[in-house]
Write a structure and sequence with these properties.
Length: about 575
């Protein structure tokens, strides 16, 4: 049985999955109903990227304070950390079904709170509720699907749940784009999440509890009745026997390891194999976040605006491309991870990510140095009171360009005939912005007009393509294989918390970093982190492709050394023997 995360599935298994689902609609209903949790997970993590542009428009305090924008984005991640931790306990104590129902309630409450929020702090409260639901869904949906589906198609059904997460992110960008011209924009974007949560709640009421959970809690007849609906008559007897044996083995493990968390942790960290596996598991999870992926997913339209696309709808339309590539990459991963291996795929992915981040650094650096200059005449055209105070006080006016203006928290009003010609640097505010756009000019406040802007979008797309099949899904696969069976839940849980915590740190600091270092400096910093991640994966993470759990344990017990260190050791042995 699976404790969560991503389960591998090959092409043959997908074919068998479609055949089984077609002939047994009950399995399809069960997997689809639970899979809505993955869809909600993806939607609620992706929707904020576009909604934030319009929240800033409605609340001036959010527009003026970077930390407020970061908090609105990252509080869902903070809630997810708590939700994942509590979700594990709820799963064991009350069952998978009640946990999914509670996640739906939290999703729905969070969506409604955000949709009717009268102030930014209420949006933050709603994001925390949604985060609780996201964390619980990330733990519970794969677990429920894996325990309630036939063993021969379990991997493909759980992989489909992972695909629904990226599908939910793609759907969030589509819905964001659909509501750009609707009154209430961001309220609709955030409130729509309540609908699938509402649907899943009532679908789950009609579905049973996980047969494994029922059997473990001595509700044997209920468990066997569910298995008879899932398996053909000639297979059900064997599956009941397998379930019985599996639960008995789990109880024996609990007696050995201990039932309370303290005893489990003490025994786990006393095991050398577990410690080595945990180092590898945490390494790939932290590296996954410090390549900066969630800055792209959470702030994608904002980054596109940094590249010089002032229109919010244009920024979201271009962001839709990156989200679509993420979903495609998830599909590609399913077909290549067993062919090329986990370690190799991650390292190839890392090389591509570092290259794209360096390219983005160069693009944003060139965009900054070639930004249109500021014309004092153009600025005075709108009146002294409308001119940016920092520009008025500056002694080196000749060195000012659009980027200097934007970094001073002012707005750049482009030249009426050609946005690349010198323009005006104006104090930021809705009234002054209205003066600029009233003359059919484009107003820039997050980025500057740039002939390099399209290159930034191209490299963002390439960044996603190189991330998704490698560092996107493989770290979760590694964490499902790297731990001794009796400690898999503990190891996976600790590694998941390291992932969410790294996610929180990165998403909470991205905009602050862009203000302090500029877009080019921030992407260069992520390139540096990615380089460290590449080195750490090379030296600390072994290949688990094609190995049984027992073989992985033997490898970790012996100690993993990369080929480079093995060559050095062999050379020393030759010298000493010579």
């Amino acid at each position: 049985m699976v404790d969560g995360g991503i389960v591998k599935a090959d092409k043959t298994e997908f074919t068998e999955c479609f055949r089984t689902v077609w002939t047994t609609p009950y399995i399809a209903k069960l997997a689809l109903a639970a899979g809505i949790g993955g869809l909600l997970f993806g939607y609620d993590t992706g929707v904020i990227s576009g909604a934030l542009l319009y929240i800033r428009e409605d609340f001036e305090v959010v527009d003026k304070k970077t930390w407020m924008q970061e908090t609105i984005v990252s509080m869902a991640v903070a809630g997810a950390i708590v939700g994942a931790g509590v979700g594990g306990w709820l799963n064991d104590r009350f069952g998978r079904k009640p946990s999914i129902l509670l996640a739906d309630v939290l999703f729905f409450i969070g969506a409604m709170v955000m949709a009717f929020a009268p102030a930014p702090w209420v949006i933050i409260l709603g994001r925390i509720f949604v985060g609780f639901g996201v964390g619980m869904a990330s733990m519970t949906a794969p677990l429920y699907i894996s325990e309630a589906s036939p063993a021969r198609i379990r991997g493909s059904l759980v992989s489909m749940n992972a695909l629904l997460i990226t599908g939910g992110q793609f759907m969030s960008y589509l819905i964001n784009l659909a509501f750009t011209k609707t009154p209430g924009t961001w309220r609709w974007m955030l409130g729509v999440a309540g609908l699938p949560a509402f649907i899943q709640f009532f679908l789950m009421l009609m579905l049973p509890e996980s047969p494994r959970w029922l059997y473990k809690h001595n509700r044997v007849e209920e468990a066997e009745a569910i298995l008879r609906k899932v398996y053909p008559e000639d297979e059900v007897g064997q599956e009941i026997e397998n379930l019985k044996q599996s639960v008995e083995n789990e109880r024996a493990e609990e007696e050995f390891v201990g039932k309370d968390l303290t005893s489990k942790l003490k025994r786990a960290f006393g095991d050398r194999i577990f410690r080595r596996g945990l180092i590898a598991g945490i390494t790939v999870q932290v590296a996954q976040q410090f390549v900066g992926i969630n800055t792209v997913l959470y702030y994608s339209p904002t980054i596109v605006q940094f590249a010089g696309f002032a229109s919010k709808s244009t920024a979201m339309a271009l962001s839709l491309v990156t989200s679509g590539l993420n979903a495609v990459g998830s599909i590609v991963s399913m077909f290549f991870v067993d062919r090329y291996g986990r370690r190799r795929l991650m390292m190839i992915s890392m090389v591509g990510l570092i290259s794209c981040l360096v390219a983005l650094t160069i693009v944003f650096s060139q965009a900054s140095s070639h930004a249109p200059s500021i014309s004092p005449l153009e600025s005075r055209h709108f009146g002294t009171n409308s001119t940016c105070p920092a520009f008025q006080d500056a002694k080196d006016l000749g060195k000012w360009n659009c980027m200097s203006c934007v970094r001073s928290k002012c707005g750049f009003c482009a030249h009426a005939g050609n946005e690349y010609l010198p323009g005006a640097c104006l104090a930021d505010g809705k009234a002054i912005e209205g003066q600029c756009t009233g003359e059919h000019r484009i107003y820039f406040k997050n980025g500057c007009p740039s002939k390099f802007g399209f290159l930034a979008v191209v490299f963002l797309g390439l960044y996603i393509i190189t991330y998704s099949p490698g560092m996107g899904s493989v770290p979760w696969i590694v964490n499902s294989e790297i731990y001794p069976l009796r400690y898999r839940g503990i190891g996976g849980g600790i590694a998941a918390v390291s992932n969410w915590s790294s996610n929180l740190l990165v998403s909470e600091t991205f905009l602050t970093l862009t203000e302090a270092l500029g877009s080019a400096g921030t992407f260069l910093l992520f390139a540096g982190f990615s380089s460290i991640g590449f080195i750490a994966i090379y030296f600390l993470v072994p290949e688990t492709k094609g190995l049984s759990f027992e073989e992985v344990e033997k490898m970790l017990d012996k100690g993993f050394k990369p080929r480079l260190l093995k060559k050095k050791k062999n050379a020393k042995d030759v010298e000493s023997n010579g």
